[in-house]
Amino acid sequence: MSNEFTIVPMTLHIGAEIRGLDLSKPITPEIAEAVNAALIKWKVIFFKGQNLSHAGQVSFARSMGEPTIGHAVFGHDPDYPEIYSVAKFRTAQTHRTAKMQRPWTGWHTDLTAAINPPKASILRGVTIPPYGGDTFWTNLAAAYEGLSETFRNFVDTLKGIHRFEPPAGAKINSNYDESIRRRVMESEHPIVRIHPESGERILFVSPSFLKSISGLTPRESGQILELLWEHITRPEYTVRFKWEPGDIAMWDNRSTAHLAPTDIFESNYDRQLYRVTLVGDVPVGTDGKQSISLQGQPILSVQDELALQAAKGR
To answer: Which terminal Cβ of the chain has fewer Cβ within 10 Å, N or C?
Structure first.
């Protein structure tokens, strides 16, 4: 395999296609380092037409970091525990109609309720509708820089409570409800985290998981969060990706939020993707202090998670 590849940016702030790599072949440490550098710079990178198997996706993921269990709450593939099935009607989507729709509804950074949210995710497209089903990502570092200096200085000092819970008023099915009860997660993270590799300041405000700002009244907290959530979803910070079968998207979960499609529920076409997630670090704020776990355990490597589940008799 060639040690060279081409980076083709897709927007000014976020998203680049990586051309010239065959991910079905072994990834050298040098290539992995270069791909990681592209990921840190462009936040989400895309590899077209790779057509990987489950094993190939897991192998690539292991070259880029340490995989977690498929999903800390919703389980994994029985034969490939690193794999999480992102199907059209997966369990996590069954409560979607209960949400109040706002411009930031559905946007999220994966599992920020954990003390150590994932470093990155690698999503593989298999069954893709001929139209519809696009995914969006937004650059949370660019969004931070887009705030006024006065407001940046203010949000630098704030911390927020992230919690994994069903939305208010949702009619939850038993499988979803049981999954939530089995894996409660709640953490206090800085509103602005320092990226552990780039040193960038990241507006760490996942709309789906961030519930309140510590130390503020409910109205103060709600108003500031809505302002920030609206801000991070401004079009100039985002990229929209139209999937084709075999495509791979890899995003830096420390510096992005993303939006899964909902238009697919209005069509008769199926949609099937598979995701592998990499173990992340504990966020650090501008004051140098780490996040605090309020409930739940850290997200573990797949080996440690399976051992823990075995010990609990699951």
So the answer is: C
- The answer to whether the CB of 250 falls within 8 A of the CB of 121 is yes
The answer to whether residue 166 sits within a structural domain is yes
Residue 217 has a pLDDT of 98
Residue 1 covered by a domain = no
SS3 of residue 37 by DSSP: helix
Range of the domain at 75: 6-312
- Please indicate, yes or no, if residue 201 is contained in any of the structural domains: yes
| CATH number for the domain that contains residue 109 | 3.60.130.10
- Closest Cα partner for 134 from 44, 42, 284, 259? 259
HSE (side-chain half, CA atoms, 13 Å) at 71:
21
Q: Find all residues with CB under 8 Å of 41, minimum gap 6, and list them.
A: 16, 198
- Nearest of 243, 205, 245 to residue 224 by alpha carbon: 205
Residue 36's φ and ψ, nearest 5 degrees, are -65, -40
